[in-house]
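Quick one, probably user error.
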């Protein structure tokens, strides 16, 4: 037993050959320590060579070094091709001693170890099978040669693709040469990877993508640039839309149908003209103008018209444009580009309420007293020529104008009354427990890699006018539909459980808003009218954006049918069938818009390199505390030694920011 315990063996540890000194041996197991001092419990199928030589434990390290050097020297000189040719018949499984006898004519331990090591390194002619050497047949060697040739070709192709890929990102706007048809399978892999983040790319291809990605170029952007250069995607393809899987292209049939449509011509029997001053209020760069306002005096009262572009006058049910829109369900607005639900010829021209041209509308006409009380209202199909397209900036400027002799005195006077009316509408909603959160609205402008961020006052007078009038239109349309049991897509929201945090009347309280958002129930689409908690309205639907939301177009068609005394265009069953697709698309679009806004905000913060940020502490979080920047209302993680109080405001600096990985970490 003492001799066995100090015997030397060579054994397999996975695919590695190691040398070990035997510590203990039983009938089924052998306990050894390898040349690095690690213990192993071996079975007989792991032991390749038994040295039958006793070595003192203290001498084992020196013995190992000398022995392995000798084996390596002999192994380096072995001609494995000659060994393979010497073995007949092929296909045998040889023990190391038999292989050593064939090649060397002896079976000493160095020869056995060297021949085993050399043979298993020659995967063309040999294969390890346990502790035996499997000799490949002529056919197997030919097959291995073919495999090795293909592997070498793949490696060469990989190198060529990397060279081509590198040159694309170094070439700027030019697409460099070096393209090969053999790249197509690699581009196929990239196409699958763009829509499936879990798709496993070859390691070298993944490394290429990682090398050219970074804070200002995401993985998706890198892949799409390669696919565009390779002709697999058209120029201008958007990586974020492709990644989301949302439909974005117009079908050729829908484009052709849009091109064939003519400008609107009024039909006097079904569409009444809008009289008096009319205007829209939007951002300066808005092209899809789907709402306008008119106002004129009626004795001691005012007749206010809220006019929504009549998309149903252009989009026939089940037309190619209609089918395209039902597939998209909504326009998509991202910081770097927009994807419209209808082709620009319609959304930005024929259906857009541009000044100086006649456009069809579905109008809500409201008689309002001087005090801002609604006296009566109705809906009509109409046509109007908008007097002027105002920007929010200009509208606010006109509201500030106190003099009747200032710029656009009639417009100023009208806006001031509308501001009074909007204030009354807001008061009534607040009295019905509406939640008013004056959260700053961020406008992100992207030009190439330059990002501009501006903060919009969402509570400015002109924005409040538009917001309150659109809410009113939607409320009255929902009320009309409910009274007439018209199948309609309603939006509701349940009241959250618990005490509602108190919000400031002016300004934005990050912490109070966070607590409220954490409590709020999501909005729900259904065919049953119900209370909308957040808006403080008993019955609500959306009808005011038929150019941009398909559900609004469906509701507009239903509303138009009741106005004209025709049967409803849709049954309850058909609207129910549409709800699932509408809700799932809306969720996907909201997720995409949130993701893109945050990506570009983080890129902006990285580009800005501000040294200090004002932070509001929201709650405990993994690895720190969840905070929100006061300026951008953007959340990150704060890492500090002392625990801050939720709701407290402190200064912090960015310690780590990675837009692509959605990482924003602050330290105090």
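Nope, works fine. Designed sequence:
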């Amino acid at each position: 037993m003492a001799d066995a315990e100090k015997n030397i063996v060579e054994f397999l540890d996975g695919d590695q050959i190691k040398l070990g000194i035997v510590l203990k041996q039983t009938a089924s197991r052998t306990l050894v320590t390898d040349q690095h001092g690690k213990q192993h419990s071996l079975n007989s199928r792991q032991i390749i060579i038994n040295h039958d030589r006793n070595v003192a434990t203290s001498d084992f390290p020196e013995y190992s070094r000398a022995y392995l050097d000798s084996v390596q020297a002999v192994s380096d000189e072995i001609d494995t091709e000659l060994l393979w040719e010497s073995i007949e018949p092929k296909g045998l499984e040889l023990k190391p001693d038999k292989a050593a006898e064939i090649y060397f004519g002896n079976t000493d331990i160095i020869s056995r170890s060297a021949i085993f090591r050399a043979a298993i390194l020659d995967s063309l002619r040999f294969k390890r099978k346990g502790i035996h050497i499997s000799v490949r047949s002529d056919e197997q060697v030919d097959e291995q040669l073919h495999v090795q040739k293909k592997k070498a070709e793949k490696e060469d192709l990989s190198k060529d693709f990397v060279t081509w890929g590198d040159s694309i990102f170094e070439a700027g706007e030019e697409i460099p040469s070096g393209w090969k048809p053999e790249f197509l399978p690699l581009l196929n892999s990239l196409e699958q990877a763009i829509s499936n983040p879990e798709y496993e790319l070859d390691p070298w291809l993944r490394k290429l993508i990682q090398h050219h990605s970074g804070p200002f170029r995401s993985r998706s952007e890198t892949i799409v640039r390669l696919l565009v250069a390779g002709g697999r995607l058209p120029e201008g393809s958007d990586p974020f839309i492709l990644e989301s899987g949302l439909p974005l292209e117009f079908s050729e049939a829908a484009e052709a149908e849009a091109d064939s449509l003519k400008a609107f011509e009024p039909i006097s029997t079904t569409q009444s003209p809008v009289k008096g001053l009319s205007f829209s209020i939007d951002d300066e760069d808005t092209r899809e103008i789907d709402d306008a306002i008119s106002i004129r005096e009626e004795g001691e009262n005012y007749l206010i018209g809220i006019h929504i572009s009549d998309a149903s006058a252009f989009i026939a049910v089940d037309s190619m444009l209609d089918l395209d829109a039902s597939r998209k369900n909504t326009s998509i607005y991202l910081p770097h580009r927009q994807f419209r639900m209808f082709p620009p010829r319609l959304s930005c021209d024929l259906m857009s309420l541009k000044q100086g041209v006649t456009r069809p509308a579905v109008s809500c006409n409201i008689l309002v007293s001087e005090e801002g009380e609604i006296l009566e209202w109705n809906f009509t199909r109409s046509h109007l020529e908008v007097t002027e397209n105002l920007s929010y900036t200009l509208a606010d400027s006109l509201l500030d104008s106190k003099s009747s002799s200032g710029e656009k005195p009639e417009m100023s006077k009208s806006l001031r009354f509308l501001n009074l009316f909007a204030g009354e509408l807001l008061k009534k909603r607040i009295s019905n427990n509406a939640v008013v959160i004056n959260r700053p609205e961020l406008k992100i402008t992207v030009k190439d890699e330059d990002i501009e961020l501006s903060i919009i006052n969402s509570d400015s007078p002109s924005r409040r006018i538009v917001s309150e009038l659109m809410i009113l239109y939607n409320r009255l349309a929902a009320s009309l539909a409910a009274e007439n049991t018209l199948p309609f897509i309603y939006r509701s929201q349940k009241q959250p459980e618990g005490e509602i945090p108190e919000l400031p009347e002016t300004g934005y309280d990050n912490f109070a808003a966070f607590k409220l958002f954490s409590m709020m129930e999501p909005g729900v689409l259904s065919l049953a009218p119900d209370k909308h908690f957040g808006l403080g309205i008993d019955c609500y639907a959306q009808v005011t954006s038929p150019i941009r939301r398909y559900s609004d177009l469906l509701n507009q068609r239903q509303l138009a049918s009741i106005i004209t005394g025709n049967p409803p265009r849709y049954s309850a069953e058909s609207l129910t069938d549409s709800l699932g697709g509408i809700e799932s698309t809306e969720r996907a679009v909201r997720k995409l818009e949130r993701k893109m806004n945050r990506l570009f905000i983080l890129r902006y913060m990285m580009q800005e390199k501000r040294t200090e940020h004002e932070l509001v502490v929201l709650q405990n979080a993994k690895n720190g505390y969840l905070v929100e920047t006061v300026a951008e209302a953007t959340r990150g993680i704060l890492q500090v030694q002392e625990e801050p109080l939720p709701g407290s405001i402190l200064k912090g600096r960015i310690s780590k920011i990675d837009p692509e990985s959605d990482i924003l970490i602050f330290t105090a």
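DSSP finds 19 helices and 26 strands in the chain.
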